[in-house]
């Protein structure tokens, strides 16, 4: 009814100033009079239109206001439901169940009372528009209403989905990604269909090259990545990460919790030597420091050279992992300036102490820098960015995750109970006397 009335008034006048629809609730928040008086006292409003209905007596308050001259502005009124008299029994109208419980509440009685009080009441709803137009035209002739220039209606914005489909707009992205896309017929890794990844046998190294570097690296590079993962996968149960994983597993925690407990120990003291070695050696090399100058400079600073030194291995007992990686890199990489530099540093450090050798962290770190800088797959800026954002340490995290999961599964398979550290392996340093 509200839509119909707004449409009717808009076609027969210069428009609706304001309209309010009041439901047929038993306890309405406002009444006809609340709004009619508000409009009546507004100088911008020149005429009123009321659409009532069968049932209730709210319209009689309007009748009284017209009689007492509280309302003097022209008001066009109509109460719907006049057809109720055609039925022999009581009829409810509309979803609110409007009905007349007395003669006074019928639409016919209300329309008659409104007309007698001075309201402009048409003979039927079909003539309501004409009645509104007649009153409006009279007010125009009298100069009460001065037509204003028609304001063009605001442009309705294009539907968002349609505009996006046409390519006119784009939705602001919550985040960006450049490594994978699952929206098409099949998953893409850096633009390469997953089926092609499998069919071409890219392996773990090739998959890493796509997901970490958004490009395919040459076979020697992907082989190197896989070698790094193999040699960093585990270093026994005694190191902090594996120890944490085992303790957490034996406490009854799940796989993810146990894995994370081990991963959280990775940092500068455990596992961080890969990034540290790459950074220290590359900075010294880029500054043009001779190997001896680099060693002396680190000694003056009181800093350890990351990637140098081993608890067990030495010149006389070399680490076979280091030898295998070093020989592979020297044989298959295009050029190895940073590895050569690190080996010169090793000659100096082992002359002082035979166990100050280039260790696994060191050889992986410097070889990775040589790969990034000299493979032809990266610009110098890209190479430096990958070094700085922790890519090399990512190899250790990924590789060691395999080992941590292995320890988790091993403890579960062995059905190991809750771990409690033996007290005789703890040095208790307590005060001799309690002081209050």
From TrEMBL:
Q: What is its main location?
A: cytoplasm
Gene Ontology BP term (one): acetyl-CoA biosynthetic process
Q: Which GO terms describe its cellular component?
A: cytosol
Q: Where does the record place the ATP-citrate synthase/succinyl-CoA ligase C-terminal domain?
A: 1-119
Q: What EC designation does it have?
A: 2.3.3.8
Show the GO MF annotations: ATP citrate synthase activity
InterPro entries attached to this UniProt entry = Cit_synth/succinyl-CoA_lig_AS (IPR017440), Citrate_synth-like_sm_a-sub (IPR016143), Citrate_synthase (IPR002020), Citrate_synthase_sf (IPR036969), SUCC_ACL_C (IPR005811), Succinyl-CoA_synth-like (IPR016102)
Q: Which Pfam families match?
A: Citrate_synt, Ligase_CoA
Q: Does the keyword Transmembrane helix apply?
A: no
What does the UniProt keyword field contain?
Answer: Cytoplasm, Lipid biosynthesis, Lipid metabolism
Q: Where in the cell is it found?
A: Cytoplasm
Q: What is this protein called?
A: ATP citrate synthase
Q: Which organism is it from?
A: Portunus trituberculatus (Swimming crab)
Annotated gene: Acly
């Amino acid at each position: 009814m509200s839509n119909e009335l707004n449409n009717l008034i808009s076609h027969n006048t210069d428009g609706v100033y304001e309209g309010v629809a009041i439901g047929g609730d038993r306890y309405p928040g406002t009444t006809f009079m609340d709004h009619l008086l508000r409009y009546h006292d507004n100088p911008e409003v020149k005429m009123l239109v009321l659409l009532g209905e069968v049932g209730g007596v709210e319209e009689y308050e309007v009748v009284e206001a017209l009689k007492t001259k509280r309302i003097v502005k022209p008001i066009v009124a109509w109460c719907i439901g006049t057809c109720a008299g055609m039925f022999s029994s009581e009829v409810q109208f509309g979803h609110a169940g409007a009905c007349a419980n007395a003669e006074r509440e019928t639409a016919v009685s209300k329309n008659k009372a409104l007309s007698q009080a001075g309201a402009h009441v048409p003979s039927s709803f079909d003539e309501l528009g004409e009645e509104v137009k007649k009153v409006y035209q009279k007010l125009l002739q009298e100069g009460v209403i001065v037509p204003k220039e028609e304001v063009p209606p605001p442009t309705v914005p294009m539907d968002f989905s349609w505009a996006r489909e046409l390519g006119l707009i784009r939705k602001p992205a919550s985040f960006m990604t450049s490594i994978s896309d699952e929206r098409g017929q099949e998953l893409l890794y850096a633009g390469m269909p997953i089926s092609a990844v499998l069919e071409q046998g890219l392996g773990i190294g090739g998959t890493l090259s796509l997901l970490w570097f958004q490009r395919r690296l040459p076979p020697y590079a992907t082989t190197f990545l896989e070698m790094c993962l193999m040699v960093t996968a585990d270093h026994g149960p005694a190191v902090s990460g594996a120890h944490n994983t085992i303790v957490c597993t034996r406490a009854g925690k799940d796989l993810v919790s146990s894995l994370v407990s081990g991963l959280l120990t990775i940092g500068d003291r455990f596992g961080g030597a890969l990034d540290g070695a790459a950074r220290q050696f590359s900075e010294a090399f880029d500054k043009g420091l001779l190997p001896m100058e680099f060693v002396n400079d680190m000694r003056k600073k009181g800093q350890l050279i990351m990637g140098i030194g081993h608890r067990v291995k030495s010149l006389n007992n070399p680490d076979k992992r280091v030898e295998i990686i070093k020989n592979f890199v020297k044989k298959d990489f295009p050029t190895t300036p940073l590895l050569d530099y690190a080996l010169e540093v090793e000659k100096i450090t082992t002359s002082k102490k035979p166990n100050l050798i280039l260790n696994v962290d060191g050889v992986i770190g410097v070889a990775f820098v040589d790969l990034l800088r000299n493979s032809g797959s990266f610009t110098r800026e890209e190479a430096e960015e990958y070094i700085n954002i922790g890519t090399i340490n990512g190899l250790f995290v990924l590789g060691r995750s395999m080992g941590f999961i292995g320890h988790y599964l091993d403890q579960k398979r062995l059905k190991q109970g809750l771990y409690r550290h033996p007290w005789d392996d703890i040095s208790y340093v307590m005060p001799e006397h309690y002081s209050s």
